[in-house]
């Protein structure tokens, strides 16, 4: 029977309330909740805008099915209010007059998707992005480290992130990659890991070849070459066995070729293998829709939406499924007497009015009910227990779908079942591996804490750190590496760690291997001090340093990593002696590591020493030393020593205080403020600290400084300082540094 379709009038929740307020059949219920004053106010605000819709609804009562546009608009209003079941029930009545175009159902489709989202959102706590990613791809976080953490399959073009986790390159294609295992960000797109790719090709050649064929099949599918794609996918199936990604794309190809039953068979297997994978449910929904199984198709699309599939892609499919279902249910629906139809008497519309007026939902207890029933496992779902022919209304179907959604959300497959295929495929055959496969190219030993650079090459962590002390280029391909890589925390490659564990059984057995690589800690002798050949330093005096030479960058890094934070500072000597015999031990107080790998050190002198044995290690010098202590004076000589000490101290401070302000400021910035005289200075191993501070300012050469470091008499040092101050006061130098320039 023909009927007219007019332009839809947009009716929102407030519009519907205004419609209720202006209708005499609704006024009693409305006034009982809001009162006459509120009713009159809303009536005045919305009566003019919504009067047209009200008149069309009231005027259509005598028109039967000849004019359904007002009822269609009413159904849309219900959908906009979130009343999906009521809207669909009214649409089913309208469909008795004839099928409506699918675009009429956009509002109810959107409301249906929102209903699904709300049902699930109330049941789930806030989860991290990486957990959402795991949920969307339908796998557990306990997946094997030998497979991709996203697709759970054998690696194809593996890339390793900064955190040490490895994925297929096609699974991480964003500019800033976020690890789905730990959530750490990698601010660049890494290159293929050469070592892991060689392991994959060696250990699992069939699966690796199958992944290549699968990629070729996907490319042909995107080019609409379905017959060629099917040949590639079948070849991949017989080469590497079945996997869910292969069956999923093959199901879509079969669907394009019209082989719907075969497509459904593959899709069923995909859902069985990955019950919480959104794309698998979407593919199965497509196959069921093509076979006319609209009930199951709507369920699969709903599950796909819950598990994270793109809603825009799903909306058109759900819209089509709803249209087909409404056609089916309209044939079995009792004829609606539109002439005597009273909206307030309709059960669903009654609950809708309660929703708007009282702020309650007809399904307000639905979530609790579904949660109480969610302990039933997936295969015991009430949806599959009940025959489809027993579902008489679309409202009942929607309720069954909501229950099924809760079952799937609470269904947790065991780790054993979830990774059964991956575990069977990714077994490590030790006979295929050799010890040389695990050798670092820098130290020629077995990997110790393997790390991978962004160019895809793998080294021992210590070897790479050692390389960064000399160059920021990859030792193999000479790719320029960012200096920040040397500063960032490095994580070992989990895949290589797992293979080492499989090969040697434990880290202890691995360390017993005869070809284990060299480690700095193994040859470090605590009796030797690393030597920084530069200048003279003094006890208790600050010594700021800019470390830029590669060998000293390595030396300082090892001093800090070893925990001693101490090294020897010695002045350079003429050939054949590389450095002087006496020096001072410096302790690192602070370190600023710059982006280019250089360091700014804040150090202070601690002890004097004499060099006993010299040797070279990794480009820098080492020395076995003997510490020097001052001789103590007898009690009868202390009065004269105290008198000289006080005179030299006063003379030295007077000389320093007479400096020009800019010179004094520079001295204080470099070596700090002058130390105060200690109470027991005569008993200290290095004497009073102020003498060394003053010696660092006096114009003496390196040889004189070295001789003073070697001297063990405080009396001699005081006399030397006093004599030098006397000469300075008589020279032009004193006038230049203690008076302003003309």
Please tell me about this protein's structure.
This protein is an alpha+beta fold and 742 residues long. Among the domains are: 201 residues, no CATH class; 104 residues, Roll (Archaeosine Trna-guanine Transglycosylase, Chain: A, domain 4), CATH 2.30.130.40; 104 residues. The protein is 51% helix and 10% strand. The chain has 33 helices and twelve strands. It has a five-stranded mixed beta barrel. Strands 1-2 form a two-stranded antiparallel ribbon. Helix 2 runs antiparallel to helix 3 and helix 28 packs parallel to helix 32. The N terminus is likely disordered.
How do the helices and strands line up, and which of them pair or pack?
Layout: H1 13-22, H2 24-34, H3 36-59, H4 69-80, H5 84-94, H6 106-121, H7 129-137, E1 158-160, E2 166-168, E3 177-178, E4 185-186, H8 194-203, H9 205-222, H10 226-240, H11 244-256, H12 260-273, H13 278-290, H14 294-306, H15 311-331, H16 347-358, H17 366-373, H18 382-385, H19 394-410, H20 415-418, H21 420-425, E5 450-452, E6 458-460, H22 461-468, H23 484-487, H24 494-504, H25 507-511, H26 520-523, E7 528-534, E8 542-547, H27 550-562, E9 566-571, E10 582-593, E11 599-617, E12 620-627, H28 638-657, H29 661-671, H30 689-695, H31 702-710, H32 714-730, H33 732-738
Parallel strand pairs: 7-9
Antiparallel strand pairs: 1-2, 3-4, 5-6, 7-12, 8-11, 9-10, 10-11, 11-12
Helix pairs in contact: 1-3, 2-3, 4-5, 4-6, 5-15, 6-15, 8-9, 9-10, 10-11, 11-12, 11-13, 12-13, 13-14, 14-15, 14-19, 28-32
InterPro entries: Lon_prtase_N, Lon_prtase_N_sf, PUA-like_sf, TPR-like_helical_dom_sf, Znf-RING_euk, Znf_C3HC4_RING-type, Znf_RING, Znf_RING/FYVE/PHD
Protein name: Zinc finger, RING-type,Lon, substrate-binding domain,RING-type zinc-finger, LisH dimerisation motif,Zinc
Domain Lon N-terminal: 526-729
